[in-house]
Amino acid sequence: MELFSLKGKTAIVTGALGLIGRKHCEALAMAGAHVIVADIDEQKAQDFALQLGEEHIGIGIDVTDKTSVEAALSLILSNYQTIDVLVNNAAINDMFENPAMAKELSAFENYPLEAFQRSLDVNVTGVFLCSQVFGAQMAKQGKGSIINVASTYGIVGPDQTIYRNAAGEQTFYKSAAYPVTKGAVINFTRFLAAYWGNKGVRVNTLSPGGVENGQDDFFIQNYSSKTLLGRMANADDYQGALIYLAGDASAYMTGANLVVDGGWTAI
């Protein structure tokens, strides 16, 4: 099981306080890594890091601000000397404050430019900046693993019918922002893998499917019916794949997209 051990390694997870971000952190900690819980809310990041154990730290980071990302690297190096694993998990997935307006605002014809730009800033520019800053350090070290979290919607277009309720009414549209940005992340992975392959830095994508998290029953049923396993993911269903990509078990794997979606994209 040494292939899956991350003992002595340092791993940072951005967007660490999200639903699967927390599970990423827990998995890395269980595998023996020193985990840097990185999120926009520094106090909450520190609180969660303490839950993982005293050997882990929480930091505040704005992935769209290079100065903030560079400050995070300096703090990590001062504590641990190296950075071995970067999980680019921070992302925006559309939420509308007023549910009554969700259908109208999420329709492509009405989708706000500001929302599209914000998704580009976080989901794409954030991955770019974190990879540039932390990846450059890995290249200097001659080793490292970058895991970019994308989505099945980076591979296939959204099926808008799953957002229809039992009466056949469209409650919401999946906007263009999420598939556009996640598709960009997948190809950015290939660029980085080719660019840093001779520096010992491996770069792969993890593309998860949808996670069940208190959604309406009709949506859970609609989504589940499109998967070969007949269900949505649990939040911890991606932990094994993450540990595989982070450590020596995937030593000959780079530029790949590991799809863990219950079979959503298989048919």
UniProtKB/TrEMBL annotation:
InterPro entries: NAD(P)-bd_dom_sf, Sc_DH/Rdtase_CS, SDR_fam. The keyword Cell membrane does not apply. It holds the Pfam family adh_short_C2. GO terms for molecular function: oxidoreductase activity, acting on the CH-OH group of donors, NAD or NADP as acceptor. Belongs to the short-chain dehydrogenases/reductases (SDR) family. It comes from Mucilaginibacter corticis. PANTHER family: 3-OXOACYL-[ACYL-CARRIER-PROTEIN] REDUCTASE, SHORT-CHAIN DEHYDROGENASES/REDUCTASES FAMILY MEMBER. Keywords: Oxidoreductase. This is SDR family oxidoreductase.
